[in-house]
Specification:
Elements: H1 3-13, H2 17-36, E1 43-47, E2 63-68, H3 71-83, E3 89-93, E4 106-112, H4 121-131, E5 132-143, H5 149-158, H6 162-165, H7 173-177, E6 183-190, E7 196-202
Parallel strand pairs: 1-2, 1-4, 2-3, 4-5
Antiparallel strand pairs: 5-7, 6-7
Length: about 200
């Protein structure tokens, strides 16, 4: 995966993303916001905000910053902000591997369906840990490789197409968890057939 391939893939996805992935990924979006348990005045960062389908689920009393690498996806997210009158949301074009925010800027950090997209997930997790305040939480929702069964066969078949797809079909859970020093506090299946997984981490004080 590289930035050029990611940007090209999501330029293609942007016009149809909400149709293809809106209903399928909706339970995971709602579960992530529920897991964040935002409190009044908290600062929340969502990386890989995409077309902004999750933004309307955040409580209005939380201040939400959404970032994405793709300008085409961000343009769609801006429409969501306008449509739902989300005055608590700010959108920025930014690479999650090079966040411009100071250390400990956010109480909560979320990453929806982006961990298997970024070129270097280890750097992503280091950045999420850096900008999360001590005692804060980082919540990730993503697909992870199945060890066997039909889904595993499909993942292996799709692996050579990763650049065109814009994500890695092969993405082992244990290896991903090992990339961070954050404390893992919850692992929950989400979406259809529990194929995707919600991971809740706590930033160590």
């Amino acid at each position: 995966m590289d930035q050029q391939a990611i940007t090209a893939a999501y330029r293609r996805y942007a016009p149809v993303y909400d149709i293809l992935f809106g209903p399928v990924f909706e339970p995971g979006r709602r579960r992530l916001v529920q897991a964040l348990n935002c409190r009044p005045g908290e600062e929340v960062l969502e990386v890989g905000v995409g077309t902004g389908l999750s933004l309307r689920h955040y409580p209005r009393y939380a201040r939400v910053t959404g970032i994405d690498l793709s300008p085409h996806m961000l343009a769609r997210a801006s429409l969501q902000v306008q449509r739902h009158d989300l005055h608590n949301v700010a959108l920025m074009a930014m690479d999650v591997q090079r966040l411009s925010f100071p250390d400990a800027s956010f109480d909560k950090v979320s990453a929806l369906y982006v961990a298997s997209v970024v070129p270097d997930p280890a750097v992503m997790m280091q950045e999420l840990e850096r900008v999360c305040r001590p005692g804060g939480e980082v919540v990730v929702v993503n697909h992870f490789t199945r060890s066997n069964g039909f889904a595993s066969h499909i993942e292996r078949s799709l692996a050579p197409l990763a650049r065109s797809l814009g994500f890695r079909p092969l993405f082992p859970l244990d290896a991903f968890i090992g990339l961070t020093h954050l404390e893992l506090t919850e692992t929950t299946p989400v979406n259809a057939f529990g194929y995707w997984t919600l991971l809740r981490f706590r930033s160590r004080a």
